[in-house]
Each structure stands twice: as C-alpha cells, then as structure tokens.
User: Fold this.
Amino acid sequence: MQTAYPLFSVLPLAAAFFNLLVTKLNKKVADYIAFVVTGTLAVMAVLTVFEAPFAYRVGGFPAPWGILLISDGLSSLTLVIINVIAFLAVIYSTKYMTMYTAKPKYYSLLLLMIAGMNGVVCTGDLFNLFVFLEVASLASYALVGFGCEHEELEASFKYLILGEVASTAILFGIAFLYSMTGTLNMPDLARQLEIVGINKAVAFVIALFIMGFGLKASTVPFHAWLPDAHPSAPAPISALLSGVLIKAIGVYAIARIMFDVVGPNAMVSTILMFLGALSMVVGVFLAVGQSDIKRMLAYHSISQMGYVMIGLGLGLNPNVPALVAAMALFGGIYHFVNHAVFKSLLFLCAGSFEFRTGTRNRYEMGGLIRKMPVTSTACSIASLSISGVPPFNGFWSKLIIIVALVQAGYYIYGGIAVLVAFVTLVSFIKLQRFVIFGQLPARFAALKESPFAMTFPLVVLAILCLGLGLAYPFLDHSVLQAARNALLDKLSYMGYILGG
Amino acid sequence: MVLYFLTLVLFVMGVYCLIAKKNIIKKIIGLTITDYAINLFIILIGYRANGIAPILFKNMTMKELSEQGVDPLPQALVLTSIVIGLGVLSLMTAICLRLYEKYKTFDMGEINRLKG
Assistant:
C-alpha cells in the first residue's frame, strides 16, 4: 500500500477528467467509471487500516523541502469513512440521479470532491492541505447548485461566499505561520512551534484556523450556510456533505492541526468545548420545528458535530487527567465514525422517500412502512442510532463523551449533552410518527419500494449502525485506539519528518 | 511596514464590500479583492530589498545565494493561490448568471427564498 498511497487523490482526479472525455462518446460509461474507481478506493482504504503508520515522500524529495503524505491511525480511519460512504453513494446515484440531467458531469464533480477530501486527509503539508480543501469545496459548491432551481442556486451562492471567506482566513493563517517559521511541512511546523511557544502571533493563527475550519465544519456561530446548502443538493451528495465533507475538511483538519501541530492547550480546549456545546444546543432546538425532512437532518448535523467537537476539546485540555482526556478523545472519534454512518443513512432514506413520493415535507407523508418497508426500517434504525438509544452505535459514543465530561468535572456540559440527546430523541420520534407510521395518504396507495440500487446502500449502512453498536462491548477497539493515539502522540508525528 | 499596512487596507476594503453591498456582482468583486490582499501579503513575506532571483549560477557560492536571493516558496504559493482564485471566480460568475436568469435581479435582498 505504501507506494500506492498517492493514488487516493490521483485516481479520482484522473477519473474525473477522463470521465468527461469518454462520456462524450458513450454516456452509459459514467456509472461504471465512478463505480469501479470508488470501489477500488474503498478496498484500498480498508487495506490501509491494517498497515503500520508510514510517511510517503512525493517525488523522493527529503522531508522539510518536499511534500509528505502521512498515513497514521486517524487518517486511515477517515479514509475508510470517506471512501466506503462515497462508494455506497455512487451505487445509490446510479438510480437516484435519473431524476436529473447531465449525469456524467455529476460523477465528475463527485470524483473531484472525493479527490479533494482524500488529499486533505493524506497530506502532511499545510499548503497542500489548503489546495485539496479548495478542490473539495469547489466541487461541493457546484454540487449543491446541481439542480439549477431557484433555491438550489441561492443556497450554492450563499455557501460559496461563506466558504470562500473561510478559505481566505485559512490561507491567511497559513501565510502567517510560514512567515513565522519558514516551513509548511506539518511535522516540521510542530517542531518549530515547540520552540516558539504560543505567542500572540500563534494565537492569532489559531483564531483564524478555528474560524476557517470551524466554518467548514459548521460549528454554531458559522453555521448559517449548512441548513440551506445540505438539503439543496441531490440526496447522495447531501449524504456525502453531511456525513463526510464537514468531517474531512472541517473536524479532521482542526483535530490534526490543534493536536499534532499546535499541541494540547487549555485556551484552545476551552474554545472548542464552548463552540461544541453551543452547536449541540442551537442545532437541536432549531431542528425540532422543521417540516422539511432534509432540512431537519441538516440541523441535526450541526448538533451532532457539537458532540465531536466537545470530545476533541476535552481531549485537548492538558489540565484534566490523561486517562479522562484519552477517553473523551476516544468518544469523539467514535462519534465521528458513527455520525458518518447514521447521518448518511438518514439522508439516503430521505432521498429514497423523495424519489417515490416527490415531497420532502414530513406532514405530507405517512404510513410509509406499509409501502416502503426496507427504506422505513433503515430510517428507523438510523433514527434510533442518532438519538442514542441502546444498543445502537450512537448510544455508546454519546455515553463515553458524557462520562468523560462528568469525570473531568464539567457537569454543566455533561448535563447539556444529556439534554440534547433527549431533544434529539423527541425530534426523531416526530419524524417516525409523521413519515413511517400514521395514516397513509390516499394518493400514495400505488407506491412501490425504491429500486435495488437504492435500497442496497441503505441495508449496508443499517447493518453497520447495528453492528457498530452491538459489537462495541465485545470487540477490541484497536482501530479507534490507533486513531486516538495518532492525535495524542505528538512526538511520533514530529518523527515522520525523518522516516518515510 | 507601510506596504503591510496598505495590504491590510486593501483587505478591509474587500471585506467591507463583501458585507455592505447588496449587489451580488459587487460581493464577488469584494471577495476577489480580499483574495488579492492575501496574495499580496504572501508575496511580501518573500520580499527582500535588492534581492536577486533564487537561481544558483556557476560563479556563485551557496552563501551568496542565501544572503541575496529571495525566498522562492511564497511565489510558488501565490501562483497556486491565483489559479484557485480563478477557479472560484469563474464558478461564482457562472452561479451569478444562473441566479439572474431565475430571479431577474442581482439584488441579494430580493434573492431570499431560503431562511438561513
């Protein structure tokens, strides 16, 4: 796998380009190209998990000068999430995207987005991270406006302006760091910052990064674009945006920079925990009143990312006992994985309902379990997972985060986390009541289940939701622990500059 | 120092344009100005008075080069950043044109079907 590591971003990038050329001759090939490429990437990502950490030198240049690609526990775990969900989204798209025109262009944009996300996760160079982040963001702006209707274009434009402000802040931060340290290599930067310490300039850079990456991850003061942008995209793209994109270019980037480059710091920890708690509360209360299913799910994304942020924030605090910090971080990463699974499942279910009923308003649906049993069951499983009902996966990760918060003495944050889990449950019970159970409207009497290509990804993700929850007490957690240790062990991250 | 200050003025002008103007074309111009301000800032990082191009000629030692040559990395970064800016600008203009086709206006105040 080591020599093939750059393929994670090169393969989809090349496929996105050739896809447009080949489909000039034959439009049907687009489905197969996307299927084969994302399938290969998913297999490669799963293989990477079993590899020892390594660093790949692009072009063979030694470390501080050339670009490093780094594979460790966290990046391989994130690669698995990205590529497996992208693969399932592509299978889903083959039928779902018949609602739209210009399918080849859609696949090219999707592949570009995957290339960008994989690049962000693989890289060990700050400017390289910025470039891939822009590739992923640009593709996602275009995909949000893919329908070219009034609302979609408006959402896309709003997302574009805010996203570019965030990118500008990130680029400014990178330029500032370079002027201070004279390096862009992340392990080298970590070493340089160890010498400089946290002075005013570094604090300014941290503020810029929290604003920039926080906007990409849609934490609360910067969340305004998400409830518009995520529902406007086609359903498989909503699943990728909410399930993967905000994690890969938002939370992953924050975690990587704050833990491995800047290092544990009480001030940053306080900020991240506060933003996390704020996101949890604001997101969930705005979600309760929504009638559009996808819009409601988008608000829940904000709220659930709050859990991840609060877990990461507590893990970053050097003043709490090391074991508690490690536990919070473990919970945060576990929730990161779980949220990717159940939120993409929920968005795909919403898309499946929309595909057959033609509406996203939950008050216009009802009794769909009698007509669409597979989609409805999958939707129920995902709803129970996101609201943290035992033994589904969401329960365990929320439990770990709450226990860690209480043990660290943050009783108020712990209480907020419990309250938010409860409100989430209420909100999803309403969803169940109006969409899956209840009266079936007369006009849906002839409704059929969605085609196999759309139900298959739902079934796989529902099994993952159940499996990750039921197996949690029994299996060993070496993959998650490796991801956690990658963040806690700053010294070995600095060591990548030598190895490779 | 004056140059840095002027870059800051440019940046603030861009941000003002982005926030205060209702017209989406003007918003795009504002965003582009902030982008250029950041690019100028990166160029200034690599600036050195009376610097020479960072190329090692035969009659030169490493020491002479490191004392006189400018830092080549910021220039490479700015090139990349300008190309990204071009991509963003063209996408923004394309969406802006489509928005005009649908809403028949460039006024952000009238493009308000979504609640945010």
